[in-house]
Design brief:
alpha+beta, seven-stranded antiparallel β-sheet, globular
Length: 160
Amino acid sequence: MAERVDGADSTASWDPDRDAVPRHVLATPVQVHERYVILDELGRGGMAVVHAAFDRQLGRRVAIKLMRPDRASAVGRERLLREARALAQLRHPNVVDVFDVGEDRGEVFLAMELVEGPSLRGWLAAAPRSRTACLAMFLGAGRGLAAAHTARLVHRDFKP
């Protein structure tokens, strides 16, 4: 599914006026579709891997969700497409926006808003947090989940 993009250097910094693709993470970036270049892995779950990527058309960083090769059955691909369609219907400040969905060399990908910062687990571990701060963070995650439920969506893999 992914195709290598030649000429990238992991130590160089990205200059948007000079460079078409950020060059600061992977020594050999990989391309998804003609539009996205994967920069780094953000996390992996039971069905998919999420990467930070660069959208060449719009000149911005995004998150790309790719089905794991060992889960890439017709059922798995349809599940990811359903997820993309469902998320695309939802607008809420505590839910990521979906930008694009497609197939590349027979594999489904989902491009979505990249939320910079640590996971909730990382945020909690980084420093002592007050009850008020923890409550605010968990309430925000809960509001996003409640918005999905209001839209009659059931999320089977909730990750705040």
